[in-house]
Design a protein that fits this description.
This protein has 220 residues and is mainly alpha-helical. The chain is built from 5 helices and 4 strands. It has 2 domains: 2-156, no CATH class; 158-220. The protein has helices spanning 2-16, 32-61, 77-87, 113-130, 159-219, and strands at residues 93-96, 104-107, 137-139, 146-148. The longest helix is centred in the C-terminal third of the chain and has 61 residues, at 159-219. The radius of gyration is 32 Å and the shape is elongated. The structure holds zinc ion (ZN). Zinc ion binds next to loops. Zinc ion (ZN) binds at residues 140, 142-143, 145, 156-158, 161.
């Protein structure tokens, strides 16, 4: 288990390194193609999320013996269409090669470093999706950079980012607590002022009516 974690940590740090697959999508400004590939990552996230939700519902329903299951549930086709529209720009060829190489594979001509990265990124992302792991490609809650999560609950790209987020979060919570205290205090005194004012108004109104009624009586 620890070995697996260590291995994943190495993979994640290699992916985020300047030569890594995630580096072009963290570049500022991002290329148009990198933007499209991020759109692909988002589409795959949506597919994984929707299918997880639908499968959970299906699992709940199938607890009833009368429920007729329709089999495996798929995310709406518009999500697949969105992903496939982005992928339609990629044209690779299948290749056969004699042993000891793989008997069949997909290859592309690495015309430029940029196009080579795009193809490798797509290849990697689709492999991640096949394992249901596209959601591990995510943005850091602190620095907003893209990274590859080692575990499903990892929200920050690194320990410094996690610490920084929590310390600012703590400061933010403290600031909000003080603000709310001041706000409630002001609200209380506003309410008190208001009720004092309306009490005065009622009292004044009563004395006026009594004056009016006295006048009324005098007029009679
Ligand atoms: Zn970060």
């Amino acid at each position: 288990m620890r070995q697996l974690r260590q291995q994943r940590r190495q993979t994640a740090s290699a992916l985020s390194s300047p030569q890594g697959l995630l580096s072009p999508i963290n570049r500022v400004p991002r290329s148009k193609r990198a933007d499209e590939l991020l759109e692909l990552v988002h589409a795959l996230h949506d597919i994984e999320h929707e299918e997880a939700v639908l499968n959970e519902v299906e699992k709940q329903l199938s607890e009833d013996p009368n429920y007729q299951t329709a089999g495996q549930v798929r995310a709406p086709s518009r999500l697949y269409a969105r992903a496939n529209a982005i992928l339609s720009a990629f044209h690779w060829s299948p290749r056969v090669a004699p042993p000891p190489h793989e008997s069949h594979s997909f290859t592309w001509n690495a015309r430029t470093a940029e196009s080579d990265w795009q193809n490798r990124f797509v290849f990697w992302v689709l492999n991640q999706h096949a394992k249901g792991n596209a959601s591990l490609i995510r943005t850091c809650r602190n620095c907003h950079k893209w990274f590859y999560a080692i575990t499903n609950h990892q929200l920050h790209c690194s320990d410094p980012c996690r610490q920084h987020f929590h310390s600012t979060d703590k400061k933010f919570k403290e600031k909000r607590r003080l603000y709310m205290r001041r706000f409630r205090k002001e609200q209380r005194s506003r309410n008190q002022r208001q009720s004092r004012y309306s009490r005065l108004q009622i009292a004044e109104g009563e004395s006026r009516t009594s004056r009016v009624s006295k006048k009324g009586r005098q007029g009679k």
